[in-house]
Amino acid sequence: FFSSMKVIVFSLFAFFFNLCLLAQESSNAIVRDSIIKVDGYSTKQIYDGVKTWFVENAKYDSRAILQIDKEDEGILQGKVSIPVEWHSMTWWCLTGYVSSIFYIQIKEGRFRVKFYNFTHFSTVAPPAVLRKWCMGEVLDEGYPESLKSGLKPAYNHMRKRVRPLIYTNTSQWFKDMKTSVEQGPRVEEDW
Question: Is 12 helix (H, G, I), strand (E, B) or coil?
């Protein structure tokens, strides 16, 4: 009886310890979240406008970035990326992109857009060191657990450049999605 009780107590301790670690890590993660009001627009009009925005602004095939597309539930989810370039020889290997997951919920007269899990990837580093130059999750403070201590200066340099790009791009995306909904579908009558 006591040995099984020890296992249960130890399991609970391990569970709560991991939960605390996860809560600590996520508190430093960058999350961009906005509820956008578009009064007078139906769920269908909002869905069409937001999806049109993705089709027109996707750097790649929009079908590839939209991983969940549930029109009847008003949900879109997928990935977007922000290109990042360095022109100095010292930090050139950090050139690449920052990937993010987006989640959109649509309701009558409003929609919520959330961008999270911003992750840096290098695309120009030589294959032998490519993994080393992929900095991982972009945090407001601290470092990802997987980052080796010798790479902290590179991570700080990446974060200094990438954080403003994240805030600028996502703010513009919020505005552009609202504009896309308000403009409605682009139908040309002269054909």
Answer: helix
Q: Residue 31 phi/psi, 5° resolution?
A: -130, 130
Give 41-89 pLDDT, tens digit per residue. 999 999 999 988 887 876 655 555 778 889 999 999 988 888 888 887 7
Which residue in the block uniquely carries the two structure tokens 């403009």? 183
Cα–Cα distance list, 141 to 30, 153, 158, 169 (Å): 9, 13, 13, 20
CA distances from 108 to 62, 69, 113, 172 (A): 24, 17, 14, 23
> What are the backbone dihedrals phi and psi of residue 185, each rounded to the nearest 5 degrees, phi first?
-65, 145
State pTM to two decimals: 0.78
| CA–CA gap between residue 76 and residue 67 (Å, rounded) | 8
By CB atoms closer than 10 A (0-12, 13-18, 19+), residue 62 is middle
Contact 98, 165 (CB under 8 A): yes
> pLDDT tens across 7-17, in order?
454 444 444 44
As a whole number of angstroms, the distance between CA 26 and CA 151 comes to 21
Count CB neighbours of 3 within 10 A. 7
- DSSP code per residue over 67-92: EEEEGGGTEEEEEEEEEE---STTTG
Residue 127 half-sphere exposure, CB side, CA atoms within 13 Å? 0
Query: Could you tell me the sign of the dihedral formed by the alpha carbons of 10, 16, 19, 20, in that order?
Result: negative
